[in-house]
Design a protein that fits this description.
The protein is α+β, with helices and mostly antiparallel strands and 390 residues long. Helix 8 packs across helix 12, helix 11 runs antiparallel to helix 15 and helix 12 runs parallel beside helix 15.
Length: 390
């Protein structure tokens, strides 16, 4: 990457920064002529799959990256074009792409506060922050957006279900058989892998019957680390538009907020404030879910997709040796609590099976498991004593 940077930014003064963590590429911070930027090289596949393929082919990682350079580069450029068309159609802000060539992209680092930092610093303002963000994204929920902004066919691999499907439904497995090595005790790994496989099947089975018919164009990148409240008061991010159900954006936002709480070792009062705010926001009459009879259907799909994203992130991190700097710090700390995190997924799956018409119960039960994953003392868990037995 250093060589590529010198070629792309010939004559610029470049100061390398820190590794930002990336499960499907290499992302670092840097300054270019005193301007903060983010530099990313896309690998075209998860790091775990890349290492697995290199071992299976008895090849070096470098040779595999070189072999796939042009193919990955074309896909990155298509994705950038999709994102640009999406932001123009919706009026969203996004960081300026300074240079992009092949699989490498250099993007400005926006001046502002991330949603992650804002939530952790002001947990009692979580509902207001989420509502502000959701209102700013109103234009992305236009049902006609898919007709005006066609996306590349390759975008089907994006998003929660695309990544979930590529992980569990590929002919070639995306991780070696010893998943969890270094993360989970050897005697527990087989049972843990079996549990992951079982939950992946259960979540697939609860896909709605009219799934494909409800697909719209979604933002696709509502990760709270990537959402920045800029100095002019608007949200800035980098969309990954693709076709999915309308609940996909909301589910990703919920999933990554929960991972933030677990992975940041947030104090008990913060965890309770954020989860209570999240519950109130999702279930409020004026919240993000549809106000009519479809509310239960929508919440059920949010829960399913939240569980799918959690399972994908967890499995992808567990497939990497702990020494590999792929996961972000938040993802790494979340993975170290893998058993407790998997209990959240299992609680959602069980709620979908046993109480399909009462998704509010599954939501409450799952948030109680979040408290447990964050090791929140029982006395700090208002209203969760009964739900935790669901």
């Amino acid at each position: 990457m250093d060589v590529a940077l010198r070629q792309l930014l010939d004559g610029a003064h470049i100061v390398p920064g820190t590794d930002l963590g990336d499960l499907s590429g290499h992302t670092v911070s840097a300054t270019v002529d005193k301007r903060p930027v983010t530099v990313r090289m896309d690998y075209g596949r998860p790091v775990a799959a890349l290492l697995y393929d290199a071992e299976a082919a008895d090849a070096t990682v470098t040779s595999l990256l070189h072999h796939g350079h042009d193919r990955v580069g074309r896909r990155v450029q298509r994705d950038l074009a999709d994102a640009l068309a999406f932001t123009r159609a919706t009026g969203l802000d996004r960081p300026e792409t300074l240079v992009s060539q092949g699989p490498i992209t250099i993007t400005e680092h926006p001046d502002g506060t991330s949603l992650s930092a804002a939530v952790l610093e002001h947990p009692h303002r979580t509902s207001a922050l989420l509502e502000h963000l959701w209102t700013a994204l109103t234009a992305t929920r236009d049902p006609g957006l898919a007709r005006t902004v066609p996306v590349s066919a390759s975008s089907g691999r994006s998003g929660i279900e695309g990544e979930f499907g590529s992980l569990w439904h590929r002919i070639t497995p995306a991780w070696p058989a010893d998943i969890g090595t270094g993360w989970i005790r050897a005697k527990d790994r087989r049972a843990f892998r079996d549990r992951i496989d079982h939950l992946s099947v259960v979540l697939d089975e609860h896909r709605p019957d009219d799934h494909q018919d409800r697909h719209v164009l979604v933002h696709g990148n509502l990760d709270c680390d990537h959402l920045v409240l800029a100095t002019d008061g608007t949200w800035t991010t980098s969309p990954r538009p693709h076709l999915a159900t309308p609940e996909a954006d909301l589910a990703l936002l919920v999933s990554r907020l929960i991972q933030l709480l677990i992975g940041s070792a947030a104090p008990p009062d913060t965890v309770v404030a954020v989860t209570d705010s999240l519950h109130s926001w999702l279930t409020a009459d004026t919240g993000p879910l549809p106000p009519d009879h479809d509310r239960s259907t929508a919440l059920r799909e949010v829960l399913r997709l939240w569980a799918m994203d959690t399972l994908t992130i967890l499995a992808t991190c567990l497939a990497l040796p702990p020494c590999v700097p792929g996961p972000t710090d938040t993802q790494r700390h979340t993975t170290r609590r893998a058993t407790r995190v998997l209990s959240i997924v299992a609680t959602i799956a069980r709620g979908l099976e046993l109480r399909p018409t009462q998704p509010e119960y599954a939501l409450t039960s799952a948030l109680a498991r979040v408290h447990a994953a964050c090791a929140v003392p029982r006395q700090h868990r208002p209203g969760t004593r009964n739900a935790s037995h669901g």
